Amino acid sequence: MPIIVLADVSGSMQGEKIALLNRSVEAMLRAFADEDSARGEIHVAVIAFGGQTARLHQAMTPASRVSWSDMEAAGRTPLGAAFDVASAVLDDSDAVPVRSFPPTLILVSDGAPTDDWTEPFDALVSSRWGSKALRVAVGIGADRTEEAVRVLADFGAPGLPVMRADQVHEIPGLFRWVTATVTGKLHEHTGGKAVRLADLDMS
């Protein structure tokens, strides 16, 4: 089951935000590794977008084999470039084999894009794998602009609310929700028992 995290590492994420985001992603990877079984294995790629472009911070790798290195925050918010990288990962048959479960795309951002994102987004969600993907939108910070809110809402899957961490300390709890959502989808595909979100400690 392929997971792609699109992580905003623009300058506004500096300080406690990026530190907690790094720790939360690392904890999510450990939780995904614990889900590995003969019926399914979660593979994860992380795209960091900040400065002038986006880059593949972590190539698609089984969660149990990832050696996490922290992301650093600086610069602008090139979301369109991140969507282009995500499309390239999904189109790579070595990263996402034909036999894979439908992927999950997780967008984490605290601001509005600073590049053209609409065409790259349309290309992503109309692609073979992108059209089947579960899309989870995560907003960080209470000072998001109307455009930032709209972008997150457009990205998220229909019927799935944009998850918000208005206070920085809420980021770890929100990622526990994301983890439960993803592992729940894996259990659905493999016939296992899904975690009930109501049972999670979101504090």
Q: Which helices and strands appear, and what pairs or packs with what?
A:
Layout: E1 2-8, H1 16-34, E2 43-50, E3 53-62, H2 79-91, E4 104-109, H3 118-126, E5 134-140, H4 146-155, E6 163-165, H5 171-190
Parallel strand pairs: 1-2, 1-4, 4-5, 5-6
Antiparallel strand pairs: 2-3
Structure description:
This is VWA domain-containing protein. Pfam families: VWA_2. Residues 2-178 form the VWFA domain. With 203 residues, the protein is of the alpha/beta class. It has helices at 16-34, 79-91, 118-126, 146-155, 171-190; strands at residues 2-8, 43-50, 53-62, 104-109, 134-140, 163-165. The chain has a single domain (2-199), classed as von Willebrand factor, type A domain (Rossmann fold, 3-Layer(aba) Sandwich), CATH 3.40.50.410. It is built from five helices and six strands. It has a six-stranded mixed beta sheet with strand order 3-2-1-4-5-6, sandwiched between helices. Strand 2 (43-50) and strand 3 form a beta hairpin. The chain is globular.
Can you say what the CATH homologous superfamily is? von Willebrand factor, type A domain
The biggest beta sheet, please? 6 strands, mixed
Structural category is alpha/beta
Distance between the termini: 28 Å
- Strands side by side in the biggest sheet: 3-2-1-4-5-6
Can you tell me the overall shape? globular
Name of the top-level CATH class: Alpha Beta
Low-confidence segments:
193-203
Number of helices: 5
Instruction: Tell me the strand percentage band.
Output: 15-25%
Helical fraction: 25-40%
Question: Tally of extended strands?
Answer: 6
Annotated CATH topology: Rossmann fold
| Average pLDDT metric | 89
Order of helices and strands: EHEEHEHEHEH
Radius of gyration: 16 Å
CATH architecture classification name: 3-Layer(aba) Sandwich
